[in-house]
Structures are given as structure tokens and as C-alpha cells.
Amino acid sequence: MRTPGHRTLIHLAALGACASFALAARAQDAVPEAPADAASASASNVLSPVIVSGSRISARGFTQPTPTTRMVAADLDKLAKPNLFNAIAELPALQGSTGRTTSTNSTSSGIQGLSSLSLRGLGPIRTLTLIDGQRVVGANVTGVTDVSQFPQLLVKQVDVVTGGASASYGSDAVGGVVNFITDKRFTGFKANVEAGQTNYGDDENATLQAAWGRGLLDGRAHLTASVEYSREKGVPSPRFGGAGANGRTWFRNPAFQVRPIAQTTDGKPQYTFIEDAQQFQYAKYGLITNGPLQGTAFGKDGVPFQFQYGSNGVPTKTGAVTGCVTPFCVGGDLSGTVGGGTTLGMNMTRQVAYTRGSLELTPDHEVFFSLNYGKVDSLFTPNPGAAKNDNLTIQCDNPFLPASIVTACAANNITSFKYGTANAVFPKDIEVNPVRTQARAVVGANGRFEMLGKDWTYDAYASHGQNTIAIRVANMSLNARYNAAIDAIRGPNNTIICRNPVAVAAGCVPLNIIGDVPANPAAMAYIEPANGPRQHSRQRQSVASFSVNGEPFSLWAGPVAVAFGAEARREQYYVIGDPYGNGVSAATPNTPEYPADPLLNTAIGNNWYAGNYHNAEGSYHVKEGFLELNLPLFKSASLGEANVNVAGRHTRYSTSGRVDSWKLGSTWKTGVDGLRLRAVTSRDVRAPNLSELFAAPLVVNNTVNSGGTTLTVQQRTIGNTKLRPEIARNTTLGLVLTQPKWAPGFSASIDYFDIKVNDVISSLNAQQEVDLCAAGNQEICAAMDLVSATKYVTLQAFNLASMRNKGWDLEALYRFNLAGVGLPGSLTLRGLATHTQTFKTNSGVVGTIPTEAAGVNLGNTPKWKGQFSQSWETDTASFTVSQRWISDGVYSNEFIECQTNCPVSTVTRATILNNQMKGAFYWDIGGSYKVNKTVSVYFKIDNLTDVDPVAAPQTGTGYGINPFLYDVLGRQYRIGARMQF
């Protein structure tokens, strides 16, 4: 067993390898694309544009003030990931990205299997992901893109712009931009074959990729194409009992025991971290949870036995258990726990096809097209069974009960009892299968022209994309049918039937949930119809963009560069749920697959145990124009050279009206060798997305407290078309050192960032809205009526919250030749780190306080996130050692840590016994060998030391891990071969 000191020494040794570049880097001078072949080399300059992802200015020599981290194809090859998303998500500035290991405990979130990138922990909705500087149709109702649908073998670089870029690119670029840039002039053929699995013999994966490109018509035309297939089989659910999948021993059912606030006057903490948490409100095959028979569980063939409570607990016959804190004991019979049964990694299949063609009409004008098809098919289990926590009533005349229980009922003068079960009798677990299919087409033109004696370049494109999302859920139960099926009585001829005659007439088949007994297939077919929850949605995006670049005149320090243009965009979506989830409507009437059933709620739906999808539709359009200028300030041998970069964008949304964004920045290449300073501040926006504007309508009954009176109200959930854009102020100050003469091959930078976001769109519950209205918020008062006969509260998203994120980005790169020490090849050291100093959110809700997310390792924003690598390369071989680091953190910054003499807890400031949550340090290694001119082989081992994920306790049923920060799969091996000619 490693001691903390031993672990610290290992960490320090790895960090010491990167000590020479403990600063973090953002080396992003504009770099022209290198010609791919002779035909490309002879093409006009128009066909070799300068790419500056954080700006729309493409003048050569332009240095933008916005920090950008660049990963080129060689960097991506070394990481050898089956999905480029995983390679990008490891960068320190990327925090909160979603992938196939996140949201696997969710049925209805809509983001399952979605590979979307998030900068600064601000969420994918505030990170703009582009391909070749172009927007891509969203892959769910929030409008975020799925990187898995991108063509990946032709990606030659990825630029991560860690600063506000709304003035350059428009809405959503609050946290920054991730731009995937493809090789448009690739010539030849290349392929990649890769396979791997984890140390536990699961998550077997295979990737096949091929790309081809050729110049035509004497180099005036060019055509490229690529196809890709990858399959990651995932980690199967181990089902019940808390045992880790396939021999993973680290899962220990972590949870928080939470005492009622009223009991915290004794000086003891309210929260306590525990392992081997036992939910005492149900058991694997059933448990009586209240009354004189409390503590009776049922085993094989329904035989009753005394349930073994953890914590030496004794049932009180009132539902409570001595020594336990609802809902958890510690230890005891853990066979029915479900938290470990969540899929760790989804079974995912990717299929992508891409082609691009261009034709040079004249030496100065080119037209092009591209077509992209991407399909991502995921499958996972959110939880085994369908746990019922102490919310069932079993009648004592139920014929499935053992005679001893019927006798005990009579002896105790009861006719029913409360009951809880994990429903382990269900033969199959719930399976969620999201399938996203993208089809996208782009046509455009670029070129150059002369005006007023100056050369100008232009770029124009129109795109249309569609993402079809189909979610199918199998083995899901209908609540009303389940309740009817378990309530059985003796019928004619001593048969067992359902008690409710209406249910019997509708085909009810009784189900025995008393003990470990084989489930009647007919009963399972009744409560889990073959056509489970279904959702079909379609996202459409149409974009037209035109931009012009030029240098119209010069000042004393050099030419003035200008970029301007206009864009128009239309976004639309619709979602259709099945009738049992949505309720019956014109769009989803009862069908043969979903026949009418008198037990089911046809008005509002919500009949499934989970996965109740509802209908919605909406659209909006955007028109905008932008202008960007680069003004040289001075240029001299002693002072160096400096410029000012300004940009503005005016946008008109069909829903929320007009909004302006702008950017003001400067870079100063000082007279000190290699030293450059930069600063930029911007006003950025995020417009409300389709889901927030046009959320699916839903009406249910609820209760609220108004002025001390409890009222029954209609809770009406709808979208809010009056939402305003979120407004952010993003400021970055940085220092860059680029290859000084005294240290050739060395680059480093340090940047301070400060992001403030106001009018953050957030949703509230009914009581929170009532409280805000009472506090004087007239906008929210308009969303309710608590006076009329029909009282209602409308649940909508509102512009209420605010966020502020501050910290530091650090990066460094040092490359040097080893010939001086008598060794072949070169050595490259690289380090990146992000320090989140503070990340505060004010919800705007009455009775709450601002929350601090920085360093909360239950979330996605650690205090420090680092990535380091040491690569040795020769003409024929390479070897890389790399490290990934997450700093230690806390469970919550609002907790008060204490062991004795604790203050009384409050709703906003709870006490906790231990508020420390460990970070993680991972070692990865990889290498390649060039067999001949066309073939190279490689290997990669991630999480070399098989570091276990840190326990992430929950307050209820949860799967006890945080895949947003920690590696949950374990050591992973991959081997592959690349070919190019």
C-alpha cells in the first residue's frame, strides 16, 4: 500500500521533469499552412490562408491577443485516442466536458453519449465548437455539437481559444472556441488501425480510419475523402450488490449520512462520509419497511428472514432504524445496492464519412463543397432493476405472501404494510440507446480581388445541417401497470389475478415481487411493453456567411488589417415522445404499439418509471454583422512593436432582439528578446437555446406555501420566449516568452483570466418562484396566479443567476536536440496547467448564498488541472511519458468542517466531519516505430499504474464516482498501425 508521502514523492518527481517550464503556454503566432504537395505549392496564396482561430483577421504576421493552445496532428497521434474528443478534453482548460463515461446514470438528460466540450467549467452551451471556422448543427436540444460526428483522420490541428470570442464568431463563445481544422489539400492515402482494452478485460475497442486525396485538372481541383469506424464496447453493469465490474475492487457504495438540521444542536457534524452505505428502505428481493413486521426480508422462493441492518441497526417499527440516518445504515446486507450497477463506460459505435472538393475557377477564385455524415450509436444501463424506496403498499391478502406473513398480519391486527424492493426479480436491466445521425453539406467560395489598389481576400459559405436523434429505452416499467400487477388477489378457481377489475379488463397479469422467484414472462410483458420510452427529435441549422479581409492602408508602424462580414443563421428543432411518456396529442396519438390503457394518464403522460419524453418544437433566426481591425501602434528596434486589435458584432435575434458584443486587445512584442505582453477584454454573449426558449409543455399538480398558507396549484412547465442573452465580460492578461536567443526551442506563457457572466439563464422550482415573487421580482410574478380559482405557477427559465470565474493558465514547451550529449533524436518537454482561483455562482434565489465551485472535486472545476509530457523522437522511433494531474479538493466549499463543538447547521452552511476529497495523478506512456517509409506501428497505455477513481459520495442513490474529473475505466492498452503514401 502506498503511503501519502510515497505518493507525494512520485508526484514531485513527475512535476520536476517539467520544472523548467512550470509556466503554462499559449504560443499561437499565426502559422501559414504548409503545402501538402507540388500541386498545392503551385496554387495561389488564396488557397493557403493563415489560420488564426481567435480572430477573423488573416493577415500574415498578425499576432492576436487572445490566448490559444494548438494541438497539431503529431500531438493527437501521440495520444492515440479512439475519439479525438478524449484527447482534447484532457487539456487543463477543458472542464466539464461530457463523454461516454458521463451521465451514464441518466435516462432523460439528453446528453448521454454526447461528446461535447466545455471550457472553464462553464458548460458545453458556453463553448463554441467549430470545424474549419464554421458552425456545426447541434446534436441535442441545447444546440451543442457532438465531436464524435466530426471527420477525425483529416484533422491537422485543433485550436483551443481560451478567451471570449463572441465578437469574432457570435453566440456561445463565452468560455472560448474549439476549432477543428481539416487538411483541405491532403494528397495520397493514409489509414489507421487501432485496437485495445482495459486491464480488466473489458471495453474492447477497435478503430478503422482511411483517407484519400488527390489533385485534379493540373492542380486546379482537389478532392479528399475519409471514412471512419470505431467501436468501444464499454463496461457491462455488474448489477446488484456493489461489486465493481469485472474485478474492480474500488467501489464501496460511498454516500453521505445527513442528519436533520434540528438534531445538529448537539455539536456534532450534520454530514458524514461513509462507505458500504446500505439503503434500509428496500432490499434486493423485498423488505417490509414499517409497522410491526418491519425488518422482514424475503429470499429464495419468497422465504422470509430477518434483514441484517448495518450499523447494528434495529428497526423501530415506525420506519426508522436505530443507529442509522435515513436513508443509510453502514454495512449489513448490501446485496440489494444498485449504485455500482451503473455502466462505467457506454458501448459506443461511431461511423463517419466525409468528402471535400474544390475547383479553382481562376488563379484568384475557388469554389468548394463538403459533405459530412456521422452516426454515433450508444448503449448503457443507468441502473439495475427499478428500486422502490419504501413507497409500495402490500395487502396482507396478497396470495404471493408466505403463510407465516399472513399469520403475522392477523396476529398484529394489520391488513397491509409498507414495502420496498430493488426489483431484482426483473430479468433484464434498463437499457438506454441514443442514436445521433448527422448529415451536413457546405458550399462556398474564397478568393481575392483588387480594390482601390489593394489586394483583398474573401470567404463565403452556406451550410445546412441536420441531426436526427432517436432515443429508445428497453426494459422500462410503467408505474400504473406495475402497481396494479403487484396488488394480487385470489380469483375464480383459486387463480391469482390483479385486484383492480379495470386493470384485469385491460390485460393485467399479476407479478410476484415477494422474494427471489422467477418473474412471470407474461407479467413482465405487461408492465414492460416491448415498445418502451421513445424520443425522436430533429435539429436543423442553416448558415450563410460572408467575410472580407484586407489591408486598405498603412500607418507609421505598418499596415492596418481589417476584416468585416455578415452572417445569417436559422436554428429549429422538434421533439416527439411516445404517448405513454408525453400523453396523447395530435402528434402522438394512441397507436397499436402504444394502445390506450385506462390505468395510464393520457393527459400529461409521465407513466414510465423513467424516460418520460415530451413533445416540443421551436425555431429562431439570427442576423449579424461584424467588423475587426488591427492597428499597429509602433515599431522600433528599442521598444519593439505593438498593435491594438478591436472587434465589434451587432446581432439581431428573432426572439430576444438586438445585442452587441465587442473585443479590445493589444499585443506588445517588447524589445526584450522573445518577450511579448498581451491583454484583451471582451463583451460576450450566449443567446438562449431552443430548449430554453421552447421547452416541452407539461402540467402537473403541486403545492406551494404563500404567506404561510399551503396552496394547491397547477405547475405549468413551458419555455420562455422572453429570455434575454447572457452577457459576459471576459478579461485576459498575459506574458509570453517565445524562443529567446538564450534558450532556443523554449516557449512559455502565463495568462490571468477573469470571466463575469450576468443574466445567466437558470430554472427554478415552484416554491422558489413564489418566494422570488414575494420578494418583489415582477417578471416572475407575471408567471403565476395565486388568487384566481385556477391557481398556477409557470415553471420557466429566467435570467436570474450570475457567475464569476478567475484563474491562471500556464503552458511551456522546450524542444532540443540530443546530439550535444551523444544521443540520437530530440527531446520535447511540454506542460500545461490551469489554476481556477475562484468560480462563484449566485443563483438569484431567495434564501441562498453564492456558491464557490473552485476546488469542489464532486464537480468539474478543480483548483488545479495539469497535463505534462516528455517525448523523445528520432527519424524512426518515438517514446512519450505523460502525466495528468487533478489537485486535492473538497466536497463543498460551503461545508463547515468540524469534529466536535460544531455550530448548528443551516440550509446554506452545513457542517461535515471531513471535507477533504483527494485528487488524482495518472501516468501514461506511448511510443511508435517506423517500419518503413509507409508503415509505422504504435502503442499507448493510459493510467499506467491503474489509479482507482476517488469516491464521490451522494446524498441519495448514486453511483459514487465523478467521471468528469477522474478516470473510471482503469488501465487501458491500445496498439495500432498507421500507413501513408
Automatic annotation (TrEMBL):
Q: Which residues form a coiled coil?
A: none
Q: Which InterPro entries match?
A: Beta-barrel_TonB (IPR000531), Beta-barrel_TonB_sf (IPR036942), Plug_dom (IPR012910), Plug_dom_sf (IPR037066), TonB-dep_rcpt-like (IPR039426)
Q: Where does this protein reside within or beyond the cell?
A: Cell outer membrane
May I ask which residue range the UniProt record assigns to the signal sequence? 1-24
- The main place the protein resides is membrane
Q: What highest taxon heads this organism's lineage?
A: Bacteria
One Pfam entry name: Plug
Q: How does it sit in the membrane?
A: Multi-pass membrane protein
Q: Where is the TonB-dependent receptor-like beta-barrel domain?
A: 453-944
Q: Which UniProt keywords apply?
A: Cell outer membrane, Membrane, Receptor, Signal, TonB box, Transmembrane, Transmembrane beta strand, Transport
Occurrences of domain TonB-dependent receptor plug (ranges)? 64-177
Alphabetized PANTHER family for the sequence? PTHR47234, SECRETIN_TONB SHORT N-TERMINAL DOMAIN-CONTAINING PROTEIN
Recorded family membership: Belongs to the TonB-dependent receptor family.
Q: In its UniProt entry, what is this protein called?
A: TonB-dependent receptor plug domain-containing protein
Q: Which organism is it from?
A: Pelomonas lactea
